[in-house]
Amino acid sequence: METLELEFPTKAQDFLPLKGTDYLELYVGNARQAAHYFQTAFGFQPLAHAGLETGLHDRESYVLVQDKIRLVLTSPLTKDTAIGRHLDRHGDGVRVVALWVNDAVQAYEETTKRGAKPFLKPTVEEDEWGRVVRSGIHTYGETVHVFVERTAYDGPFLPGFKAWKPDYRPAPVGLRYVDHMVGNVGWDEMNVWTKFYAEVMGFSQLVSFDDKDISTDYTALMSKVMSNGNGRIKFPINEPAEGRKKSQVEEYLDFYDGPGIQHIAVATNDIVETVTQLKSRGVEFLQVPKTYYDDLLGRVGHIDEELNELRKLGILVDRDEEGYLLQIFTKPIMPRPTLFFEIIQRKGAKSFGKGNFKALFEAIEREQELRGTL
Ligand code: FE2
User: Fold this and answer.
1) CB neighbours of 255 closer than 8 A, spacing ≥ 6?
2) What spacing in Å lies between the alpha carbon of 364 and ligand 1's midpoint?
């Protein structure tokens, strides 16, 4: 794969060891119904709950889990709350990207002394299952990173949450872990935020795409991928680029009213089975033209999967030096054209599907055309 020159160290710094994504918290208009949606459509399992019954008066949260992915869905219970203002401004979206650390105090100190804007000073929370320490910093837009140290905790989720055990439990669909999370930032801000991840969080730059890589006849964007040392956390950062029409990143920035998380990519070991399940449960995916498959094997070489199955489901394939990957993108899952999910299966490839960008962005443009936002 051809890449641009990397401006940041190719080896990440180890002052901020991250063990993985701990949880993602979404602020949503109706957490109870959103929980039902993620159970029914995506196969997430009920894990924990906090609300009036646990002594909260201003908000309610449902926590869902599927293998290593934890989603927290939070809604306000009263008017004039910070969560309510967040919802009014952004619509439903990701507020917290929580990262699992061994030492939340150290994570806070190392990042804030390198210039991170504090969000949450190190805070100890305890209940009968033990203690958790959390701290947090701001990143782009109103998105925050919370560092979670849970070495001395074996409760269902976090102190203050009770186990949530409803009878309703649709089966999982094989989602395993968060592969990467993409942020959209404003014009000329990509380098500001890649610099933030390099300097403040010790990430290195994996790869870079310019507007020649990611453009169609009409729209364009630029992207750089930042990763932590062990590669478990990967944050591609997009910014819009000049095109003849409005790009998907600009559309996102308009509707989200600023930078935020654009998509959450979740990994599966069997994308054909996972996507078959998701489709049968009503999840809608972007469709590329059937001609995409005409010369697919010529482009990517031998693959283990049945071409017909991939064509039927609309799954995309790309290859790099190390292997290949299969991927598919949902339509936005919110009323606003903002957040969506990617389902990805890696078979050796460590890249992000560059060979699919053009087909994919043309599919997004067709949706934008329908929305009147192209
Ligand atoms: Fe992605």
Assistant:
1) 91, 336, 337, 338
2) 14
pTM to 2 decimal places: 0.94
Query: 182: CA distance to ligand 1 center in Å?
Result: 6
- The domain made up of 175-371 has a fold known as 2,3-Dihydroxybiphenyl 1,2-Dioxygenase; domain 1 (3.10.180)
20-163 and 175-371 agree in CATH topology:
yes
- Provide the 3-class DSSP secondary structure of residue 226: strand
Q: How far is the CA of 265 from the centre of ligand 1 (A)?
A: 6
Separation between Cα atoms, residue 118 and residue 6, nearest integer Å: 28
Fold of 20-163: 2,3-Dihydroxybiphenyl 1,2-Dioxygenase; domain 1 (3.10.180)
Ligand 1 centre and the CA of 179: distance in Å? Answer: 8
Distance 140 CA to ligand 1 centre (A): 18
Measure 79 CA to ligand 1 centroid, in angstroms.
35
Ligand 1 centroid–CA 109 distance in Å is 31
Within 185-257, residue ranges assigned H as helices are: 190-199, 248-256
Distance from Cα 262 to the centre of ligand 1, integer Å: 9
Q: What is the mean pLDDT of each run of 10 residues along the chain (374 residues)?
A: 54 83 98 98 98 96 98 98 98 98 97 97 97 98 98 95 97 98 96 96 86 76 91 94 85 97 98 98 93 90 96 95 95 95 96 84 86 88
